[in-house]
């Protein structure tokens, strides 16, 4: 992936998407609190992310020219059901509340999907609003036999196959498979 990609922004506010760094984590978490409220840590998707590291090369942030983090998206390695179909879990996607509708979320999504495909991943799953994510190709068409490990709204479980047929026959509970965080790394990041 290119180190940095310029995205749509006003002349006053040029923005770019780049890989997340360890130094970005506090700003990212604060952004998630502002955009989603502190309850984002209690969502079912967090059960799949807790204690794990995002998939290699798939943690992105949107930055203002000053370097301030104004958007974030991460993808996580998972097994889609009991037959272990390898896939990614996308989320959370968040944008600074004062910059909503500026195209930042769309830019993050487009780059995340493109990078996942470039890295050879076969499918992406998320829990989100179908009308928003449909524009990126996500639907509930392949998730009817899949379940999250906790409470969630079934109609919000969406998927995008990057390779046709990648989720054929996928059924059961989605499980985390990504690399685990080492305790020393957690202490260093916080």
CATH architecture: 3-Layer(aba) Sandwich
Q: What is the level 1 CATH name?
A: Alpha Beta
**Terminal Cα span:** 26 Å
Low-pLDDT ranges: 184-190
Number of helices: 5
The topology string of helices and strands comes to EEHHEEEEHEHEEEEH
Q: Give the overall form.
A: globular
CATH topology: Aminopeptidase
Task: Give the helix level as a range of percent.
Answer: 10-25%
Strand content: 25-35%
What's the number of extended β-strand segments? 11
User: What's the number of structural domains?
Assistant: 1
CATH homologous superfamily label: Gcn5-related N-acetyltransferase (GNAT)
Structural class: alpha+beta
Mean pLDDT: 89
Q: Over the alpha carbons, how many angstroms does the gyration radius reach?
A: 16 Å
Biggest sheet: strands, sense, closure? Answer: 9 strands, mixed
Q: What's a quick, concise take on this entry?
A:
By secondary structure, this protein is an alpha+beta fold.
């Amino acid at each position: 992936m290119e180190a940095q990609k310029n995205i749509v922004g006003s002349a006053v506010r040029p923005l770019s998407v780049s890989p997340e760094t360890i130094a970005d984590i506090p700003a990212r978490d604060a952004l998630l609190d502002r955009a989603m409220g502190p309850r984002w840590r209690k969502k079912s998707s967090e059960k799949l992310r807790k204690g794990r590291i995002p998939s290699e090369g798939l943690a992105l942030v949107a930055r203002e020219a000053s370097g301030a983090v104004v958007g974030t998206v991460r993808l996580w390695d998972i097994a889609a059901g009991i037959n272990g179909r390898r896939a990614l879990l996308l989320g959370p996607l968040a944008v600074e509340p004062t910059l909503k509708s500026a195209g930042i979320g769309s830019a993050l999504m487009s780059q995340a999907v493109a990078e996942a495909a470039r890295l050879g991943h076969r499918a992406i799953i998320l829990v989100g609003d179908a009308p928003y994510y449909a524009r990126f190709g996500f639907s509930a068409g392949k998730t009817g036999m899949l379940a999250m490990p906790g409470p969630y709204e079934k109609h919000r479980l969406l998927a995008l196959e990057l390779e046709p047929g990648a989720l054929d026959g996928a059924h059961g509970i989605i499980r985390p498979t990504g690399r685990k965080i080492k305790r020393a790394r957690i202490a260093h990041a916080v």
